[in-house]
Amino acid sequence: MTMPDDEISVRGRPRSGNTSRATFSGREARGPIIDQEGHEIAPETLEQGFREFGFEFGKANPFGNLTREQRLARLEALAKLLDIAFVLPGTNIRYGIDGLIGLIPVVGDIITTAISLWLVREARALGAPWYLTARMLGNVAVDGVVGMVPFAGDAFDVMFRANMRNVRLLRRWLDKQGR
């Protein structure tokens, strides 16, 4: 069963036998605005609420306009979360989400390596020289490659702490540079 071409090209004509007498155009209201309790809301208050609620990413970007110290503090906090956030009960061994996510075969190690590479990128954005960046990339590579080994790699992740090493390297270099 096919539809004739004249039914396809004609606008405004309903396909079914039901016809509606309602006409709507553009921004015209289609009825009262009702809240969750069933009460009617005045359109003026709704428009005022939309004007008050807005996002302006250009003015308050949480990732931009940070000082050098704030960026370094963010890197240190992320490195601590990845490497030493928790303590193994009954021992003095610290581990982070890097060791936990690394328990997921292959995918977990790829995710944590990507986060570690972001830390190196941020260090480069802070002005770290190529030799320091190369050393940091070496730490990430060792952590990523050895971390791929099931269980033994996760134990290595817990002990090696590549992210803490990298932040420590960056902090030492920044301290030598002066502000």
Secondary-structure map:
Elements: H1 5-9, E1 33-34, E2 40-41, H2 43-52, H3 68-83, E3 86-87, E4 94-95, H4 97-101, H5 107-125, H6 130-147, H7 152-160, H8 162-177
Antiparallel strand pairs: 1-2, 3-4
Describe this structure in words.
By secondary structure, the protein is mainly alpha-helical. Helix content is 55%, strand content 4%. It has helices at 5-9, 43-52, 68-83, 97-101, 107-125, 130-147, 152-160, 162-177; strands at residues 33-34, 40-41, 86-87, 94-95. It has a two-stranded antiparallel sheet. Strands 3-4 form a two-stranded antiparallel ribbon. A hairpin with a 5-residue loop joins β1 (33-34) and β2. The radius of gyration is 29 Å and the shape is extended. The chain starts with a helix and ends with a helix.
List descriptors.
two-stranded antiparallel sheet; 179 residues; 55% helix; mainly alpha; extended
**Which percent band covers the strand fraction?**
under 5%
Total helices: the number is 8
Mean pLDDT level? 80
Helix content: 40-55%
* Biggest beta sheet summary: 2 strands, antiparallel
Termini Cα gap: 78 Å
Question: Which residues sit in consecutive blocks of at least 5 with pLDDT less than 50?
Answer: none
What's the alpha carbon Rg, rounded to whole Å?
29 Å
Structural class: mainly alpha
Shape: extended
Neighbour order of strands in the largest sheet: 1-2
Count the beta strands: 4
Order of helices and strands: HEEHHEEHHHHH
In a nutshell, what does this entry contain?
With 179 residues, this protein is mainly alpha-helical. The protein has helices spanning 5-9, 43-52, 68-83, 97-101, 107-125, 130-147, 152-160, 162-177, and strands spanning 33-34, 40-41, 86-87, 94-95.
